[in-house]
Design brief:
Elements: E1 9-16, H1 34-42, E2 44-46, E3 49-50, H2 56-65, H3 69-72, H4 89-95, E4 99-104, E5 118-121, H5 133-140, H6 170-182, E6 191-200, H7 240-243, H8 247-250, H9 252-282, E7 289-295, H10 314-317, E8 321-324, E9 333-335, E10 339-340, H11 344-351, H12 366-369, E11 380-384, E12 387-391, E13 395-401, E14 406-412, H13 430-447
Parallel strand pairs: 1-6, 1-7, 2-9, 3-10, 4-5, 4-6
Antiparallel strand pairs: 2-8, 7-8, 11-12, 12-13, 13-14
Helix pairs in contact: 6-9
Length: about 475
């Protein structure tokens, strides 16, 4: 990289549970996202980016550490889940002169070395409601408790009570707080700002005055809205009421209503993205700020007649991944190669002229962003406890063991892009299955990191590191 280049600011905008296809730039027939579309036109969009876990906290830890789940050890959203030894990307950047801040949803519970110097929270995953900045804001305005802004999360039904005005919603508050932080930044004081939008994760209640609303009778349902029974997929990850919301239970009208709410929240987030980008322009910071738009994981968003998330479909693991830096990144590039969210950490390090820690397992995408290369992978990986997945351009194999039985899925994504036909036991695909199983095992061996090994104990892959080493 150019050592004479001024240190860039980094603005990471992450929303929660955003289906990668529900964006205007992806050609969605209904969803309107003009501001995110503009970022994609100005920079590079990675249309085949996959997160390392379909659950909020483990996915966010992979983003912030550049590590796979079996290396960082986090698989749940529970408190005290994040090992105190883990160091984050903002922790590293802070040591290299960056101001670090997080506004909105953090969802990194009890992380000792999260690295954010300034924090403003809105989500109850980050603390009891009475301690959150957003709820204190509502209380000060006399709005807390007066509106049905939460709805019924467990069933995805929408509240019939009056809703908060959009300017005071999760989204409006988060956008305003991000602008307030940017107004405190100077041209010679580099920052790393993470803006976390709470939604389109449920609650799907729509604030009053959203910039775009959608008509349930006019939207187009996904082409693969044919349901799979809950017990038919070996790895269906039933997260309480969320994943049990299906068309056959609540009816198509309810599915359409939920989708319209989901789309309206995406458009509201898009409006806030535009507001934040405009603030960068107003502060004369845009030309030296890398802007990244992404999501922690996806949502079925009507696929298989469902809303919510569940193991191990592309709808849940493919995520938006857009990078924009005027004058530096190749404008309008559409990268179709496979990449992963662990790639964010080393890429930012390269662009910020910061050495990448040995613990980082992602791939640097800087040359692709600059139009100087075509970095991508021939496979991506994601996982949950007891289940590991390898996905190539053509195949997806998931393998699990519950202590008594082996469970396997294999899909030919060219012939069956929506993963309806499990070929794991099909003799025609035996050689493909065995090859992918070996690659999956090799990945686990190469990237696994026992915490108590010391140098010289045994020969290990070069990708491994040692405590204190």
């Amino acid at each position: 990289m150019d050592s004479n280049r001024s240190t860039p600011n980094v603005l990471l905008i992450m929303d929660d549970q955003h289906h990668a296809g529900c964006l205007g730039y992806r050609g969605h027939p209904d969803v309107k996202t003009p501001h995110i579309d503009a970022l994609a036109r100005q920079g590079v969009r990675f249309d085949e980016c996959f997160c390392q876990n379909g659950v909020c906290t483990p996915s966010r830890v992979s983003y912030m550490t550049g590590m796979y789940c079996h290396s960082h050890g986090v698989y749940t959203n529970e408190s005290h889940a994040i090992p105190s030894s883990l160091r984050s990307l903002p922790h590293l950047l802070q040591r290299h002169g960056y101001r670090t801040a997080l506004v909105g949803k953090k969802h990194l519970p009890q992380w000792e070395h999260h690295g954010f110097q300034y924090e403003r929270f809105c989500c109850d995953s980050d603390g009891p409601a009475e301690s959150l900045h957003y709820y204190k804001y509502l209380e000060a305005l006399g709005l807390h408790g007066r509106y049905g802004e939460l709805g019924d999360v467990k069933r995805f039904t929408l509240s019939r009570e009056p809703q908060l005005p959009a300017e005071h919603s999760f989204e409006g508050w988060t956008g305003t707080e991000a602008v307030r932080y940017l107004e405190s930044c100077g041209p010679n004081d580099p920052f790393f700002l993470m803006v976390g939008f709470e939604r389109p994760h449920p609650p799907l209640t729509v604030p009053e005055g959203c910039p775009v609303t959608y008509d349930p009778g006019r939207i187009t349902l996904p082409s693969n809205d044919v349901e799979l029974p809950l017990n038919e997929s070996s790895f269906f990850f039933a997260r309480g009421g969320e994943a049990k919301w299906v068309k056959s239970v609540h009816g198509e009208d309810s599915l359409r209503e939920a989708l319209c709410a989901y789309y309206a929240l995406i458009s509201l987030i898009d409006e806030q993205v535009g507001k934040i980008i405009q603030s960068l322009e107003d502060q004369d910071l845009r030309d030296n700020t890398i802007v990244i738009f992404c999501a922690d994981h996806g949502d079925f968003a009507g696929e298989y007649g469902k809303m919510g998330k569940g193991w191990n479909y592309d709808a849940v693991h493919r995520v938006p991944f857009v990078w924009s830096w005027p004058g530096h990144f190749e404008a309008g590039r559409i990268h179709q190669g496979l990449v992963e969210t662990v790639d964010l950490f080393p890429t930012i390090c390269n662009l910020a002229n910061v050495s990448v820690p040995r613990t980082v397992q992602g791939m640097d995408l800087a040359e692709t962003l600059m139009g100087e290369g075509v970095e991508s992978k021939d496979a991506v990986f994601y996982e949950f406890v007891g289940v590991k997945t390898i996905r190539t351009k053509q195949y997806k194999l998931s393998y699990g063991f519950d202590g008594e039985r082996e469970i396997g899925e294999l899909f030919d994504l060219v012939a069956d892009p929506h993963e309806y036909k499990n070929l794991f036991d099909d003799a025609t695909y035996a050689s493909t299955r065995e090859s992918l199983l070996r690659r999956l095992l090799n990945w686990i061996i190469e990237t696994g990191q026992p915490p108590n090994f010391q140098p010289g104990y045994e020969k290990l892959p070069a990708s491994r590191w040692f405590e204190g080493g």
